[in-house]
Amino acid sequence: MCQAPENENKVESKSSSHTSRGKKVYTDYSITGIPGDGRCLFRSLAHGACIRSGKKPLNENLQRELADELRAQVADELVKRREETEWFIEGDFDNYVSCI
């Protein structure tokens, strides 16, 4: 998803963490604001993917482009798996997918 060149936009991360019940628990984190523009879920996923891969946060325009691309991929996947996914969509499935 985050498509910056391999060595560009790398961020050195010195996260503090420990293990609890077999899971890694991060204790060094920050809160990042995401514009509430109707694509905030997809923006936050794009942002998190870049941070997790060690890259710098995306600028707002690239974040929007990646969010829209991810949204389209999710809509396509819902249509492909309609029999599996239709039951949990509230309201009309086709309308939901066209609005997503």
From TrEMBL:
Superkingdom as given in the UniProt entry: Eukaryota
InterPro entries associated with the record: OTU_dom, Papain-like_cys_pep_sf, Peptidase_C85-like
GO annotation, biological process: protein deubiquitination
Any GO molecular function: cysteine-type deubiquitinase activity
Pfam families named in the record: OTU
Record-annotated OTU domain positions: 29-100
Stretch list, region Disordered: 1-23
Family according to the record: Belongs to the peptidase C85 family.
Identification of the protein by name: OTU domain-containing protein
